[in-house]
Write a structure and sequence with these properties.
256 residues, alpha/beta, seven-stranded parallel β-sheet, 8 helices, 7 strands, globular
């Protein structure tokens, strides 16, 4: 088991990619702390995981709750080895539709929350001179034209930049920082976005998905498990000499 004796936090771990990563990490031997705002999905995934770890109700827009998340993890297990910053929010918006409240909402979770979780986790990891931080960005952060909205793309571009700078500044503590940039991934968020887009454009969901898939070189979307596979690798000792990188998992949509 690649992650035996490790302790991992997965934010937004109740459903979608977060759920897949939490379950995969548990199968690889880690004790997993699921940080989830939605109580129902968090409980369900925690139960599926065999309650091997901890479930914490956490709003990643609140720095005090991020502090509580890391503090309780260390108090409970005595260490923190892996953090996956997965929690994120978005909605389908045109360029002229993005409001100040939309902007603040997305940045508070997708960028601000990611940084302060990185910072708080790194403080603990630095004490042991060891740690893996994995940030879930998006190909939207590399300018993918099919993004849900421009503000969301900006938050994910910020995650990519923070990954690179964080990797540089934390290397002396033997902390690896990498990002995963998913493409089209069949999650609850994807289903919500597809519904919003089809309603706006007057398309059936079947037609919209067919058009979308035609743009993907490999002709299929990601499953959440595709992202979990990459995360498990980056969290393991097999990736000890990889840091500051942003890996696309997108079927060939983006080459950067």
């Amino acid at each position: 088991m690649k992650l035996e004796h490790k302790v991992a936090i997965v934010t937004g771990g109740g459903r979608g990619m977060g759920r897949a990563m939490a379950l995969r990490f548990a199968r690889e031997g880690a004790r997993v702390v699921i940080a989830e705002r939605d109580h129902e999905s968090g409980e369900k995934t925690f139960s599926e995981m065999g309650e091997r770890g901890l479930l914490m109700h956490t709003d990643m827009a609140q720095v005090s709750e991020i502090d509580d998340l890391v503090s309780r993890t260390v108090a409970e297990f005595g260490q923190l080895d892996i953090v996956v910053n997965n929690a994120g929010v978005t909605r389908s918006l045109g360029f002229f539709d993005v409001s100040e409240s939309d902007w603040d909402w997305m940045y508070s979770v997708n960028a601000r929350g990611v940084f302060f979780c990185m910072q708080r986790a790194a403080r603990e990891m630095a004490k042991r001179k060891s740690g893996k931080i994995i940030n879930i960005a998006s190909i939207a952060g590399k300018g993918f034209r099919g993004t849900s909205n421009i503000a969301y793309a900006g938050t994910k571009g910020a995650v990519i930049a923070m990954t690179r700078v964080g990797a540089s500044q934390l290397a002396r503590f033997n902390i690896n920082v990498n990002a995963i940039c998913p493409g089209v991934t069949r999650t609850h968020m994807f289903e919500t976005l597809m519904k919003e887009m089809t309603e706006k454009r007057g398309l059936s969901e079947e037609d919209a998905i067919k058009r979308l898939y035609s743009t993907i070189p490999l002709g299929r979307s990601n499953t959440p498990e595709d992202i979990a596979n990459m995360a498990a690798f980056l969290a393991s000792s097999e990736a000890d000499n990889i840091t500051g990188q942003s890996f696309n998992v997108d079927g060939g949509l983006v080459w950067d």
